[in-house]
Design goal:
The protein is mostly helical. Helices cover 63% and strands 11% of the residues. The protein is built from seven helices and three strands. β2 and β3 form a beta hairpin. α1 crosses α5. 20% of the residues are buried.
Length: 158
Amino acid sequence: MDSADEGRIGVVAALVRATFLVNAVYAESGREHGLTSQQGQLLCVLMGGPRGMGELTTMLSLAKSSLTGLVDRTERNGLVSREPDPRDTRAVRVALTPHGSRLAAEFYAETCRRVERLAAGLDDAGRDALAGLLGAVVRDNRVPEVFLEPEVAVRSTN
């Protein structure tokens, strides 16, 4: 094996290990804000506006019963509320409460800072290359917008 290849890992291991890194950031940020990782993810998704339960099931990759439990717990904590869907009287949409919106903004900002630090060892060109490559993977796999770009998140909370 060439000494230049010793520190390299393949794309599968890199993506899986990067997922573990980001999940660890969510868990740590969540603990500090009194949230589970899934509650933090829910709050971040809702920063873009209210969502229907079916949409949240798809976005968060949860079974319907798991999502219902997550929303119930988060609602009991005063962070989200259920509101009637104006397009379908049988359905509800989940929205951030004012308290949930404040906590979501704090959690989001701290999570962004921590995720940003994960790439601290890269120069600007490396960061741009990483963003471009991961962005292509996300687009190619049609990943829903479960985490807004920082400038979009700031506009949506103001």
